[in-house]
Amino acid sequence: MNVLFITVSNVNIANHGIYSDLMRYFVKQGHNLYIVSPVERRQHKPTEYVVENGVHCLYVKTLNIQKTNFLEKGISTILLERQYCNAIKHYMKGTTFDLLLYSTPPITFCKVISYIKRTNPGIVSYLLLKDIFPQNSVDLGMIKHGSVLYKYFRRKEKTLYRLSDFIGCMSPANVQYLLEHNPYLSSNNVEIAPNSVELEQTTPLDRTAILSQYNLPQDKTLFVYGGNLGKPQGISFLIQCLQACANKAVCHFIVVGNGTEYGKLEQWYKQSAPGNVTLLKQLPKADYDHLIRACHVGLLFLDYRFTIPNYPSRLLPYLQYKLPVIAATDPNSDIGTIAQANGYGLACPSNDVKAFTECVDRMLQSDCKLMGEKGYQYLKEHYSIECTYNAIMKHLDHV
C-alpha cells in the first residue's frame, strides 16, 4: 500500500516522536511511505525529492513556520498550500496513493488534499487532529472572534474537515468538542486515534550521574516539566506555582524546554533565584529522556482560558518512564481527569495555585512508583503506536 503523509513537522523516522514512530510502524508493516515536509527559509536549502532509508521524502522550501514571529508564521501558513501543491504535482506526478495522512496544524492544506483525492480515486483521507485552530488562538487572545482573519481560517477548518474521510482525535473530549461545534460531521467519521509512542526497551540508568550532571539534589522528590514553553502552557501560572512551592524543602522542580515564553520564565528565575527550582534550556532528546527517567513526577500545564480540549503529547514520555503526573489544565481538557480515573495522576484547575500546591502535597504522600506503573500499563493499552495504526487501518481492509 502506498501511504502519503503531509506535515509541517520535521519528520525523521530514525528518531522518536508521535509522527516518526507512526510512520516507522507503517514501514515495518511493509507499506511504501512518502512524506512531504518543509525545509524552512532559515535552512537555506531548495525544494528536493530524496529517498532516505527506503522512505520517499519531498522537502518543500517554505518561509519559516516554527519559532518565528506571528506575521511570518501567518504568511507562511497561507502560502503553504500553493507551495506544497506545486511540489507534489512536480515531483510525485504519476504516483498513486491508497492512504493520505495529514495533521493539524496547519488547516491550510485544503487544496492539496483536494488535488490528491481528485487524482487518486478511492484513496482514504485521514486527518490526525492535534490542534483545533483558529479557536485556540481566539482563546489566547491572538485572533479576535468574528474578525476577517478568524472567518478566513474558520472556513479553511470546515473545508478541511469535510475533505477528510475520517478524523482521528486525541481523546474523548476532542471527539465530543468536534461534533458539538461542527454538526455537519458524522459521528461515524470522527474517532479516537491518540497521540502514541513506540515502546522502547530501557537500559539501566546511572541516576546519580544524571543528577550530578545538572547539579540536581539526590535526596529530594523531583518534579519535572519538559517541552514547549509558550502561551498555551500558561507560563505565568507556572511561575506562580513555583513561587508557592518555594518553601517545600523535600521537593525540587525542574523546568526544561524552550519557546516564546522562555524569556519570561528566565527573567523570573534570575531575579528570584529560587532554591528548589532548576531551569534548563531545551535538551537533545536522548539527554531529555535520561533526565525524565531520573525524576519522580511529571507536570502538565495548559492555559486556563482554553475552551478547546488540548491533550499534550508530553504526557507520553512521563508514562513511558513510569512517572505519575500532575495536570494543571483548563476545565475542557480531559488529560487530568483520565489520569485521575486510572490512578496515574492528579488534576487541578490551572487558575488555582492553592489546588496545585495541594496536589504536590498529595503526590509527596502517595506511592509514586505504583502510580507510575499504572501509567505505564495505561500507555501500553491505549497509547502504544499499534493503537493509532489500528484505528487508521481498520478503514482500509479493502486495500
CATH topology of the largest domain: Rossmann fold
- Mean pLDDT value: 92
Rg over CA atoms, rounded to whole Å, is: 21 Å
Helix count from the secondary structure assignment:
15
Spatial sequence of strands, sheet with the most strands = 3-4-2-1-5-6-7-8
| Overall geometric form | globular
State the fourth-level CATH superfamily of the largest domain. Answer: Glycogen Phosphorylase B
Low-pLDDT segments, ≥5 res: none
What oligomerization state is this entry in? single chain
Order of helices and strands: EHEEEHEHEHHEHEHEHEHEHEHEHEHHH
Strand content: 15-25%
Indicate the CATH architecture of the largest domain.
3-Layer(aba) Sandwich
Structural class: alpha/beta
Task: Write up what this structure looks like.
- The protein folds into two domains: 2-198 and 384-393, 3-Layer(aba) Sandwich (Rossmann fold); 207-382, 3-Layer(aba) Sandwich (Rossmann fold).
- The protein starts with a strand and ends in a 6-residue tail after the last helix.
- The model has no long low-confidence stretch (mean pLDDT 92).
- It is an alpha/beta fold and 399 residues long.
- 40% of the residues lie in helices and 21% in strands.
- It has 15 helices and 14 strands.
- The strands form two sheets. The chain has an eight-stranded mixed sheet, sandwiched between helices. Strands 11-10-9-12-13-14 form a six-stranded parallel sheet, with helices on both faces.
